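pinging the channel bc i need a second pair of eyes. not urgent but kinda urgent?? the chain im working w is below, pasted from the shared doc
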Amino acid sequence: MWHKKRWSHHQQAQFFEIMGDLVGAGYSLSEALNTAESALPSRKRDLLHINQQLSQGVTIEAALDGYFDKHIQLQLSFIALHGELTRVLQEIGKHEFERYRQQQQVQSLLLYPFMMLLLTGGIGFFMWRYLGPQIAEFSNTSAAPAQTDLTWLMYVGIVLVVFFAGIFWLARLPTMQRWLILTKIPLVRKVVQTFIGYFICLHMGLLLQSGISLAELVKHTGKRKGDSLIVNFGRLANQKLAEGQTIMAFVQAVPLLPSECQLLFKSGKQQQQLGLDLEKLAQLKQIQMKRIVGRLVALIQPLAFCVIGGVVVYMYAKFMLPMYSSMGDMQSW
């Protein structure tokens, strides 16, 4: 049995960017995979296995299953409905490359503050371990500062425990409930709503333009296994339709869907035109998402330097002020 190993984010983004360009230029899937081997030599065996499965009639979703993230697999599943292979590959390539670029940007922005914080922490440990006892003995201070340090450490420890416990609790919640909670967090809410709007509007637009009705879309997503957000949407929509509600009532009832969807469904346009409008809305959401993430990324370094500044001020108050005070007492002799 072939052992499938998940590709890195960089490899996933590179693969779909190459495949989207090649298939868009007229290459067949088999030819594009053969060409991709030269760009991804470390994944040559995987690509050969994928090509072999496709030649045996396996769908692209099944052939790529196990190598890529779950949200990519869901996007690939829609190809069986609307047949827009090239468009989906190109969209996945653009989105995954943008996500990888943002990850690299965050890492590069955090590298310098992390090194500064590490250096500052090293200096602080040296002063606490070697200079602290001498300063305390020289200035005849009591053990109260040490007790104060333990109190601060206890507070920091409590905050960290509560933070990680909150993340663990959030990860164990059902997907829909987790996303609903994320939409209530100020800095995260806008990113979550914009991403969901982009993802849903893009594929819904492609499906409607290809002649797939909303009922077929709901049925397809609702029948899939797993606990992803889109699958939960499909199941919830199936439930509402079975209760006699309309798609419009479903869109209004789910706060995760963008409010623009309500306006488009109220417009009464034909399915083809509605699909075009949803695709344009997806492009708008993608631009908004890039803008929002860019603003959040720009806040990383200032916040990190605020933390470093707080550590430096604490070290100054902890070690330097007592030393200066003792020197002043000596001069008064």
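so The chain is about 80% helix and 0% strand. and The longest helix spans residues 85-139. — does that match what u expected or am i reading it wrong
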